[in-house]
């Protein structure tokens, strides 16, 4: 276990960019641009980071899961995920970091459904759309390095196009409009989107159901049918994921960790933590040593 010397997990925003809310760089994680943070230690970002790995091998730890990625593949790091990226060979490709405000609620929901809740990467990328994706990266790079008065809007449009090409190929179907999506799938997407934003404050399924204009029973039935777990279980599991991050990467006490994830009663927090992990917070932290 690494020494815990922080009261919080290091979190970084987008820096050193000429374009508001977007940072692009060639994929060499050992070379830092001015003001850029190193990716080899545990941290999280307040933005998305898409990694397009065209050559080489990359090791990553993302929320306690070890991964090995071999080119060609696409990897997405989502806001708030605690991660480390460690090159295993020389790498080539791109990374593009972008602010959540640049993409629509629908796009974020699709990314969460088809990417964050499935797998962190997609390999065996078909050549035909790998070339499409690389062409968009090249176009973004040309505008990024020689900014025009319209570069902000142009790069944002190219980024959104890039994401939709990736999403469409990952899903295997054309991205559908909201009125063509199945109602249960839409409910699950909207529930998870709200959960990731409000889990510290909203602990009851009834709060989410009210925001979605459905009954609590309908929300629970829908989430259970699609994910195999109830809305309450989904809420608790996400809260405990954040608690595990804090126990692993900070020196906050158990009570403070509980407060950070929205449990003001320490006994209740310990009970929920044990129900999810089969360990108390103290046992979990002890096992990391």
Automatic annotation (TrEMBL):
<dbReference type="InterPro" id="IPR020449">
    <property type="entry name" value="Tscrpt_reg_AraC-type_HTH"/>
</dbReference>
<keyword id="KW-0812">Transmembrane</keyword>
<dbReference type="InterPro" id="IPR037923">
    <property type="entry name" value="HTH-like"/>
</dbReference>
<dbReference type="InterPro" id="IPR009057">
    <property type="entry name" value="Homeodomain-like_sf"/>
</dbReference>
<feature type="transmembrane region" description="Helical">
    <location>
        <begin position="154"/>
        <end position="173"/>
    </location>
</feature>
<keyword id="KW-0804">Transcription</keyword>
<keyword id="KW-0805">Transcription regulation</keyword>
<protein>
    <submittedName>
        <fullName>AraC-like DNA-binding protein</fullName>
    </submittedName>
</protein>
<feature type="domain" description="HTH araC/xylS-type">
    <location>
        <begin position="189"/>
        <end position="287"/>
    </location>
</feature>
<keyword id="KW-0238">DNA-binding</keyword>
<keyword id="KW-0472">Membrane</keyword>
<dbReference type="InterPro" id="IPR018060">
    <property type="entry name" value="HTH_AraC"/>
</dbReference>
<keyword id="KW-1133">Transmembrane helix</keyword>
<dbReference type="Pfam" id="PF12833">
    <property type="entry name" value="HTH_18"/>
</dbReference>
